[in-house]
Specification:
Layout lengths: L2 H22 L13 E4 L14 H4 E5 L2 E2 L6 E7 L7 E7 L3 E8 L3 E5 L4 E5 L6 E6 L4 E7 L5 E8 L1
Parallel strand pairs: 1-9, 2-5, 4-6, 5-11
Antiparallel strand pairs: 3-4, 6-9, 7-8, 7-10, 10-11
C-alpha cells in the first residue's frame, strides 16, 4: 500500500471521528439520554395552571429553594419533602428559555407532577430523586404537586 493511500485512509478516519464527535456530543439542541427518573421536554404548547385551592394564605409561604446557575449548566432547584408532607410551598423562579432542572426528594412514595409541562415521575425513600430537566419555554406559574396526596410542594414561576 502506498503512502498516498495510507494518508487518505488516515484523513478519512480523522474526518469520521470528528463527525461522530459533533453528532454524539451533548449540547442544548439535543436532549441527553437520561435514566428513568429524568424527564426531558421543550413543551412548546405548555399552559399555565392556577392553584385551585382557596387555602393559599395558609399553605403557601414565600421561600426560595437552593438555586445554582452556571454558564454551561441549567438552573437547578432542590425540593425536599419530609415524610409528613410539605410545610410550605416553595417558590422557584426562572426566566423563559432557561434550562431548568428540578430535583425532588420525598420522605414517602408518590408521583410528582409538574403541571403545564406535563412531566410526571415517581420517587420516595430508597429511590433516586425525581429529576425534571427541561427548557422553560412558556412563561407563567406552574404547580409541582404530589399526585396521590394532591399536595402542592412548589410553584415554578417562569418570567418572560
Amino acid at each position: 500500500m502506498s503512502n498516498a493511500w495510507r494518508a487518505a485512509i488516515g484523513l478519512a478516519a480523522v474526518v469520521i471521528v470528528v463527525g461522530l464527535f459533533f453528532l454524539l456530543r451533548d449540547d442544548d439542541s439535543s436532549p441527553a439520554a437520561e435514566t428513568t427518573t429524568t424527564a426531558e421536554t421543550t413543551a412548546p404548547n405548555a399552559t399555565t395552571e392556577e392553584t385551585e385551592t382557596g387555602s393559599e394564605e395558609t399553605t403557601t409561604e414565600e421561600t426560595t429553594t437552593e438555586e445554582t446557575t452556571t454558564e454551561e449548566g441549567p438552573t437547578q432547584f432542590r425540593v425536599n419533602v419530609p415524610p409528613g408532607g410539605p410545610s410550605k410551598v416553595q417558590r422557584l423562579n426562572a426566566t423563559q428559555d432557561d434550562r431548568v432542572e428540578i430535583v425532588v426528594t420525598m420522605g414517602f412514595h408518590d408521583d410528582v407532577h409538574l403541571h403545564g409541562y406535563d412531566l410526571l415521575l415517581h420517587t420516595g425513600p430508597g429511590l433516586p430523586p425525581a429529576r425534571f430537566a427541561f427548557r422553560a419555554t412558556t412563561p407563567g406559574r406552574f404547580e409541582l404537586e404530589t399526585e396521590g396526596t394532591h399536595q402542592q410542594i412548589a410553584e415554578l414561576r417562569v418570567s418572560p
